[in-house]
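Question: I have long wanted to understand how a fold can be written as tokens. Here is the record:
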Amino acid sequence: MNALLQASATAADTVYALVPRDPLGAAADVALVVTAAGVVLLLALLAVVLLQVRRLLAALNERAQPTLERTRGAAENLEYITGILKRDVDAVQKSVQGLGERLRETSEAMEARVRDFNALMDVLQDEAESIALDTAAAVRGVRTSARSLAAGEGSRHADSAPAPAAEVGSEEGPAAEPSAAAETPALTDPNAPPPA
């Protein structure tokens, strides 16, 4: 018994305080439990959504991979074609520059040849004029010599009557021409015999 008394004496030592439950405290406890359950539910939903998004991204990656590879291949082809076009444009530009340089050189050479040809034509024209003048003077000298020879031989064979001045002038022009013709042999070749 003694043990019971002792137990009851110890029990009297400990005081238990029970707080009466008011409706506001009970509502707060319920709200806390509901909030915790809602957070757990939201975390579960978020995990499900993340898994679905991950699956969707994997599916999109599988579908987009061939397109990305084709795009990468097209970009590589475009880069290759661009490189070829750049090389070709550079080659064409160098060719055009070379052609322009050669055309300029050819034009300069052509101008030099035209100048040389013009100089040659000037020399030929001067020579032709000189030859024409020399030939005309020689022909005039021959005519004059032939006339004087004909006049000299005609007087030997004729009745020793001089030819009238009108006859001499009628053949080649005015009567004063024989004196001018006598001056022309000096213009002819110096090696030619003087007229008689």
In short: Residues 164-187 have pLDDT under 50 and may be disordered. The chain is about 85% helix and 0% strand. The radius of gyration is 69 Å. Residues 23-157 form the longest helix (135 residues).
